[in-house]
Design goal:
It is a single chain. The chain folds into 2 domains: 214 residues, Spore Coat Polysaccharide Biosynthesis Protein SpsA, Chain A (Alpha-Beta Complex); 74 residues, no CATH class. It is 41% helix and 17% strand. The protein is built from 13 helices and 11 strands.
């Protein structure tokens, strides 16, 4: 049998934790992607339900497509970072996946078509999501029409979900170079947020799709924010501003200390502001009123300025 030519290969990185209810449907929706050769690398983050048993069954069903391993519970951020470092460099593209979503069959094909012809060294695709209920019945499509592209926007707030992201081999290589030391790991944003911040910092190509090819379940026990009504949204925003230990200054320090030669002068200038704004009251105030701080959401911009004044950015 002849080997199909020009079919892009994709390694999907999937972290699971107590996901027995939805994992089979999600994995099969990934395997059923059209016009791509898919491999799935799964790390189980210490599940206590039947997730591992379900993964073992799926591995027997698709032995050439699925690889999985188990680890101690460390949280989804560290789990995905471990998946990045365990991933193979032999694929054309890579994607993050959540355990409880459902992918339409052309999700990867569309993503790759949007970035494959670009000549940029680093390339990333991300899109909006179709929010669905627990049964994957679509409720509404999240509006990202006001999204502002660029590094400063992403540092202000990462608005795009990692479960939509598809990126090329060179961006994965760069991610693998990053040393996430204990000094920074607790204060870093999510694995996908850092990927987008890093990609925009090095002037990588980012395609943001207003369309969606994924049903994103919003569950009451979801470990990620958003959804679940106005009260939950207000609590999430309060958490972001006053409670979260994630700091953009940690991202800025990693980028400047580890890959400064790859970052444009304009972005390095903003990184210096992030690193130095705590050094004096005047620098804090000047940075908080910087007109370039804009992610497209007024409330998020105001929260970012408040976090700077509180020296929590």
């Amino acid at each position: 049998m002849k080997k199909l030519k020009n079919i892009p290969s994709v390694q999907v990185l999937l972290s699971t934790y107590n996901g027995e209810k939805y994992i089979e449907k999600q994995v099969k929706s990934i395997i059923n992607q059209k016009n791509v050769k898919v491999s799935i690398l799964i790390r189980d983050d210490g599940s206590t339900d039947n997730t591992i048993q379900k993964l073992e069954v799926l591995k027997c069903m698709y032995p050439k497509t699925i690889k999985f391993y188990s680890g101690e519970n460390c949280g989804y951020k560290k789990s995905f970072i471990d998946l990045v470092h365990q991933s193979s460099i032999s694929f054309d593209y890579y994607a993050f996946a959540d355990q409880d979503d459902y992918w339409l069959s052309n999700k990867l094909e569309v993503a790759i078509s949007k970035i494959k012809l670009r000549k940029n060294k680093y390339k990333l695709y991300a899109s909006t999501v179709i929010i669905s209920d627990n049964n994957a019945v679509p409720l509404y499509k999240k509006d990202i029409s006001d999204f502002v592209p660029g590094f400063i926007s992403v540092m202000t707030r990462v608005r795009l979900a990692g479960c939509t992201m598809v990126f090329n081999k060179e961006l994965l290589r760069l991610y693998k170079e990053i040393d996430f030391s204990k000094k920074y790991i607790k204060k870093l944003p999510s694995h996908d947020g850092f990927l987008m911040e890093m990609c925009t910092a090095v002037n990588g190509y980012v395609f943001v799709d207003d369309n969606s090819y994924i049903y994103h379940r919003r569950l009451t026990n979801s470990v990620t924010g958003g959804g679940n009504g106005l009260r939950k949204r207000i609590m999430n925003e309060y958490q972001r501003t006053f409670k979260d230990i994630f700091e953009s200054s940690s991202v800025a320090e990693i980028l400047k200390n580890q890959i400064p030669q790859k970052i444009s002068p304009k972005n390095l200038e903003f990184i210096d502001k992030v690193i130095e704004y705590r050094s004096s009251l005047m620098k804090t105030f000047v940075f908080a009123t910087d007109s370039s701080i804009n992610c497209g959401i007024r409330v998020a911009n105001l929260e970012t300025r408040l976090k700077i004044l509180l020296r929590r950015f």
